[in-house]
Specification:
10 helices; TIM Barrel; 9-stranded mixed beta sheet; two-stranded parallel ribbon; 2 domains; DNA polymerase, domain 1; elongated; alpha/beta; single chain; 17% strand
């Protein structure tokens, strides 16, 4: 008998499947809690469900998770996993532990369509979108590997969609995944603990403002259209004025959240005081509630850029701070195992 993988189903689909089997719909909440709040992988562990019902469930449903192809640990404690799905396609997922929180950087696509010139993932051709359950599986696998099923002492506290791919090119699956992460019967991660990073897809930013209400990060990286189009082709479709207008709407609809502007520091490209002033001017012009993450560039083989000098990054930061903008310099984590920002890539190819 062919069984359905429970983790491939939404809660509503589980309810419908149970009704077809003559079971009560409330069983779906119990099953959901066992999978997403307690991390069980067999019906035998579901002790608040009768043995007879468990037997029926095991005849009709199964548990399957992706495989770990590679497990690397950086000298700073950052961990990177290469995750293989049922079709042998792979993505990378990175866990960044800190004293007061643990952040998981997850992927939404195998490869990427955007080819941003400073990003390693962009050198890998887009292969396919991840299904919503493949996105969620990255969290479940991480919690297994970290032994992190004690809700009162969570090691994994924050999720960032900053891995491989452009999340908003896979909006529907990302949205389904976010709803599963939010579900209080399961993983119970609030929208404030989830950040979606986008290169600037304006229609999806506007949708997310109403539908998802997570934290929003914008891969900005340039302060004028000429430069941004040169290093990020998406700017041709959604130039800065259109993008920042969408950010203003996101601010208005989510007034308690600052949008994060991600700004990779590229030596001699986007790191001058003129660029810093242009950035200040943009924030003021659109009256945005933002913070700006300054990201030292993390090199990879055959890349065409170098990281800005430390003094240059500090001067850039000083200009922003003097204008009253929050502008931390992101600490590089996991670069010795190519797990740092902009370094992720798998060997999967389109067939």
């Amino acid at each position: 008998m062919v069984t359905k993988n429970l983790t491939y189903l939404t809660k509503q689909q589980i309810i419908e499947g149970l009704i077809r089997l003559g079971e009560k719909p409330f069983r779906a909440k119990q099953i959901w809690n066992w999978i997403y709040a307690r991390g069980v992988k067999s019906f035998d562990e579901m002790t608040n469900i009768s043995k007879e019902t468990r037997e029926v469930l095991s005849q009709n449903f199964s548990f399957e998770h992706p495989q770990i192809s590679k497990d690397l640990t950086s000298s700073d404690g950052t961990r990177k996993w290469l995750i293989k799905f049922s079709d042998c396609r792979e993505v990378e997922t990175v866990f960044i532990p800190e004293e007061t929180r643990g952040t998981l950087c997850i992927s939404s696509q195998v490869g990427c369509t955007l080819s941003c010139k400073f990003c390693h993932t962009g050198t890998q051709t887009w292969v396919r979108n991840l299904e919503f359950h493949e996105i969620v599986a990255q969290i479940l696998l991480t919690k297994d590997l970290l032994c992190d099923w004690n809700k009162k002492e969570r090691k994994l506290t924050n999720i960032v969609f900053m891995g491989m791919g452009e999340p908003f090119f896979n909006y529907e699956n990302v949205a389904k995944a976010v709803r599963i992460l939010n579900d209080s019967d399961g993983l119970d991660l609030s929208a404030r603990k989830i950040t979606i990073s986008t290169s600037g897809l304006v229609p999806e930013i506007l949708r997310a403002a109403d539908e998802l209400k997570t934290n929003l990060a914008i891969s900005l990286h340039a302060t004028n259209d000429k430069l941004r189009t040169e290093i990020m082709a998406i700017n041709k479709k959604y130039p800065l004025a259109e993008l920042l207008s969408a950010c203003k709407i996101y601010n208005r609809k989510n007034p308690n959240q600052k949008i994060t502007f991600e700004y990779v520091m590229l030596n001699g490209v986007n790191d001058s005081e003129i660029h810093a002033q242009e950035l200040v001017n943009l924030v003021r012009k659109f009256n945005l509630n933002v913070k700006i993450n300054l990201i030292p560039f993390n090199p990879w083989n055959d890349c065409a850029y170098d990281c800005s000098k430390s003094e240059q990054i500090l001067n850039f930061q000083k200009k922003l701070k003097n204008a009253g903008l929050i502008s931390p310099i992101r600490k590089t984590r996991g670069d010795d195992v190519l797990a740092a920002c902009g370094q992720l890539k798998s060997s999967s190819q389109r067939s």
